[in-house]
Specification:
β6, α5 (194-206) and β7 (211-213) form a beta-alpha-beta unit. α1 (16-27) packs across α5, α2 (59-68) runs parallel beside α3 (94-121) and α3 runs parallel beside α4. Helix content is 39%, strand content 14%. It has a single domain, classed as 3-Layer(aba) Sandwich (Rossmann fold). The protein is α/β, with parallel strands linked by helices. The protein binds NADP nicotinamide-adenine-dinucleotide phosphate (NAP). NADP nicotinamide-adenine-dinucleotide phosphate is lined by residues 11-12, 14-18, 37-39, 54-57, 78-82, 103, 130, 132, 175, 177-178, 180-183.
Length: 237
Amino acid sequence: MQIKDSIALVTGANRGLGKAFVQALLAAGAAKVYAAARDPSTIEVLPNVVPLKLDVTRPEDIAAAVQNAPDLTLLINNAGISGLSGQAQDSISLDTLRHEFETNAVGPLATSLAFAPILAANGGGAIVNMHSALSWINLPNTVTYSASKAAAWSLTNGLRLRLAAQGTLVVGVHVAFVDTDMTRGLEGVQKAAPHEVVQRILDGVLNEQPEVLADGTSEQIKQNLSNGIYLQPITQG
Ligand SMILES: NC(=O)c1ccc[n+]([C@@H]2O[C@H](COP(=O)([O-])OP(=O)(O)OC[C@H]3O[C@@H](n4cnc5c(N)ncnc54)[C@H](OP(=O)(O)O)[C@@H]3O)[C@@H](O)[C@H]2O)c1
């Protein structure tokens, strides 16, 4: 799918990878970018950027976004949370688990389903869903985050099948650590640059890839799934 002249919506567009998506979409010639955030006043004012209020866990926000973006052709489900820094290694918080599932798995699916008729009416378009290398493996302090991203991966694979008939490309993205607020507290790990990750993803959309492995670590982990890499004790770094 061409990025040039597309009309995109990015969730969690105010910082991190979401902000990098907005910049890269504009640079690639997108006609309009709906930059969605829980607080739209945090969106940088730029030409061709339309701020939208969207908390992906709030059905009323999703419904309003659908009303406000009837011309959408490219949905980027980027918003996500991680208890990575706040979760002690010796405890697993069920509240965190529920919150991560609502934000990382249910939210993107609900947003995708709500926009699917619009994408169909506008020629099919594409949906990009941000998963993680941690969809495939776990770390002692990412138990709930990894589970939510594994669920997101599976939901994307199901959504791809459901939306094939309407010609919507559904792209699942896996990437390891990226240098954003989400990984701020992590020392001694390699972190990819957000703009490089986003460029690989947009190249994947352009080439109609159903899956984008946006860094070398994700490629390595995927190659080793059949060797049972997820059974091995892995420590951070
Ligand atoms: N950074 C990494 O290492 C990494 C690796 C693999 C995958 N990912 C995934 O990539 C995506 C972007 O991550 P990031 O690194 O850019 O994280 P980030 O810097 O922490 O930014 C997260 C974004 O998600 C938004 N958000 C959180 N909950 C939301 C909700 N309920 N509704 C709408 N927006 C919400 C945040 O908005 P507020 O400003 O309102 O909080 C913020 O814009 C996430 O899905 C993440 O899981 C990140």
